[in-house]
Amino acid sequence: MDVPGVVSGALGEESPVARIPLKGEDVLFLTPTRTLVYRAEGLLSDETVEEYLHDAERVSVREGRRKAKIELDYGTDGTETMEVPASRVDDVVPPVLAGVLNAAGVTGPGESVKGVYRFSELTLVVTSSRLVKHVGAAAWDEDYESIDYGDVTAFSAEEGSVASTLVFGTDGHTERIKVPNESFREVKEAVEEALFAAHDVSTPAEFAQLHEPEEPDPTPERDDMGFADSGIAPIEMSGADDDAEEQTRSETGASTATTTDSEPASEATTAESRGECAANAKDEERAWRERSRSEPERRGGDERREQNDRRRERTRDRTPAETREPEPAPEPSIPDDELLAELRDILVAVERQEDALASHSDAIARQRAELDAQEDRIAAQRDELAEQRQRIDDLIAAIRD
């Protein structure tokens, strides 16, 4: 990079990262912290170097017919104005603004500026990692908004009659930015290129697929866990088993008694046989009495259980209807057609107001441009008068010599 000697002395240990020709031999050099404007030697002036630090709090741009003025506001340290040809302002503003954003911590190391788009009251700075938005007369100040590409999950565009809208969707939030139609396509393509590159995709379809919500698995999971693993004890049918055992014992006793009756009568002739028969008869009588007592008790227990079951069923059938909670009455709903019509009217009114504000801003911008043009004409006339005065002084000096 060709650097004049006077510029090398002003750079010190820094190296220029950009070189922008201005007019004639005038050149603008940019470093990470400063902007240096080299003015070549002229008929009435020597070569000079103007230095502008990037730690400004506010950047404003005013364009005239011949010259453009970039104003850097340093707060309590004052304001400095950089003059460049009007034909080179679009080449100068982006790198200068990139240096200011980097110095303010808005952009990070290695983050590059892809484009700067200035409208009447809106400035958009498209970088490789974010979109910086500023609303106001200034190109940038500390009252700005930033949309990080990493937070964006949806991106679309809405076309309008005067201006179209860029729609950014993040988690739980939607950001809308209106851009005039004459520049909308250029801005949209720049934003898409930077956004897709940040997400490592190349098309809108790939970006949308990247952020589609995952669908739940329609197949329900089977629960193969058994009772032993779940800690739930199996239901014991103890009552039914006891009844079955009791019935078995009763049948066994009846069978034993029948067998005793069928013994041969010949054994009753002896005293021993008669004693055994008497004992057996007593045992049989006792067993019969026990069976007689246990059978009604068992039947009574079964009857009581059946009565309790029937009583509970009748109680459920007799539950009064008034004890049930009344169902809530449906809330009156507004018809969808009426709601959509109201929203459409509100949207139309908002767009009309925005169009009116845009027209007003354009009128102010035209008036400002006319004032700047008048200032440029006055400055040009002053320069011509100064040159004429210098020529007159040179002629007078030559005549005296």
TrEMBL record:
Biased composition (Basic and acidic residues): 209-225, 281-327
Alphabetical keyword list: Coiled coil
Domain of life: Archaea
Residue ranges constituting the DUF7115 domain according to the UniProt record: 1-107
Source organism per UniProt: Halocalculus aciditolerans
Protein name: DUF7115 domain-containing protein
Chain residue ranges for the region called Disordered: 208-338
Coiled-coil zones: 350-398
Positions with biased composition (Polar residues): 250-272
